[in-house]
Amino acid sequence: MLDEPAVRDRFDPSGFWRLIADLPRQARAARALGRDCPLPEHFTRPRRVVILGMGGSAIGGDVVATITEHLGSIPAEVVRDYAAPPVGEGALLVACSFSGNTEEVISAFSAQLGGPGMRLALTTGGALAAIAQEHDVPLITYDFDGPPRTALGYSVLPLLEVLRRLRAVTLDDDAIERALGGLERCAEAWGPRQPTASNPAKQIALRLRDRLPYIVGGDVLAVAARRWAGQLAENSKQWAFAGALPEADHSTIVALERQQEASRTLHAVLLDGPAMDPRNRRRAQLTARELDSAGVEHEIVAIEAEDPLVAVLEACQLGDWVSYYAALLHGVDPLPTPILDRVKAAMAEAGAGAPAS
C-alpha cells in the first residue's frame, strides 16, 4: 500500500511529503540566515539561553537547547507558556514564532523587553517582527510555504549559527556539514520512492498501525522522542506519547507491573545509538527486557550517528517520515489540523485575558 503512488495522491493531495523531503535544502538556507544576520556589538557569549516557543517552533528550540547543553557549557531551556522567568544580565532571550503571532510567545517576550540581557527574534513576520523592529531587537526572518512543524530547519539552524558566533556552543563547520549530508541520505533512504522492503520508516509505520505509540529516547535523543510523538499526533492524527531515559526507568516503567488494557495496545519504540550516554544505552536494553516480560510490543530503533547534532536531526527526520506513512495507513491527509485551527480561533475570539468558556 505505501509503495503505491495512487495512495499517496489520494490522501496527500498537497504533496506534504515534499516538505519532509525538502528538509536538507531548507536546513542549508536556514544556516545561511544565522551565519549572515547582523548582531549588535553588545552581544557576547551568553551565560544562559532561554527560548520562547510553542509547537513546531518549540521543538526546534528543544533541539538547540539539547545541542547547546551537550556541546557547550551554558544552560539552555525552552519555555512554552505566557510568561518566562527573568533572564538577568548576560542571558540571551530568544522569541521563536513561525507566524509571528503566537500569543504565548508575544506575551512572554513583550514582558521582558527593555530588561537586562540580550534579545533575539526568529519568525516569518507578524506581530513579533513588528515588536522586534520597534524595540531594535535583532530579527531573523524567513519565508516558508508550509506548516510550522515542517520548518524544523528554520527553527534550529539559524539559532545554532548565532550561538556558534557567540561561542556558546562548540560546533565546527564539518559537524554541521555531516548533519546536513546525513539528512540528504535520509531523504533518499526513507522517502516514498524507497520500497517498503528496504524502507525502515515505512516498516515502523506499519508496526505502529492501530497501536498506541510510546516513544522513548535517552539524553540527546529525548528531544527526538518528543518530536516523534508530536508528529504522529499532528500528521497521522494518532495518539502518541514520549518518554525520556533515565527518568522513565524511575517512574513510567512501574505501570508494567499490572496487566491492563493499555498495555495490550502499546507499541514502544526505544531510540538508541552511540550518541547517547552508555548508561542510558544500557537502560534502553533493560527497558526493552521489562516490556518483553510484560508482553508489550516494542522495538529498538538504532540511530547510528555518533555526533549529537547528526543523531538528533536524523532521529527527528525518521519520525517525520514514520508519521507521514502512518497518516497514509490511517487514510488521513497529513496537512490539515482543524482542531488546532478551531482552538486558535476560539482563543482569538475570546480576547486577551478572557477565560475560555
How would you summarize the topology of this molecule?
Blueprint: H1 5-11, H2 16-21, H3 23-36, E1 48-52, H4 55-71, E2 76-79, E3 91-97, H5 103-110, E4 118-123, H6 126-134, E5 139-141, H7 152-165, H8 173-190, H9 200-208, E6 212-218, H10 222-236, E7 241-245, H11 261-265, E8 266-272, H12 278-293, E9 297-302, H13 308-330, H14 338-350
Parallel strand pairs: 1-2, 1-3, 3-4, 4-5, 6-7, 6-8, 8-9
Helix pairs in contact: 3-7, 3-8, 4-7, 4-10, 4-13, 8-13, 9-13, 10-13
Description:
The protein is α/β, with parallel strands linked by helices and 357 residues long. The protein has two domains: 37-171, Glucose-6-phosphate isomerase like protein, domain 1 (Rossmann fold); 194-330, Glucose-6-phosphate isomerase like protein, domain 1 (Rossmann fold, 3-Layer(aba) Sandwich). 49% of the residues lie in helices and 14% in strands. It contains 14 helices and nine strands. Strands 2-1-3-4-5 form a five-stranded parallel β-sheet, with helices on both faces. It starts with a helix and ends in a 7-residue tail after the last helix. The model has no long low-confidence stretch (mean pLDDT 95).
Structure in a nutshell:
With 357 residues, the protein is of the alpha/beta class. It has helices at 5-11, 16-21, 23-36, 55-71, 103-110, 126-134, 152-165, 173-190, 200-208, 222-236, 261-265, 278-293, 308-330, 338-350; strands at 48-52, 76-79, 91-97, 118-123, 139-141, 212-218, 241-245, 266-272, 297-302.
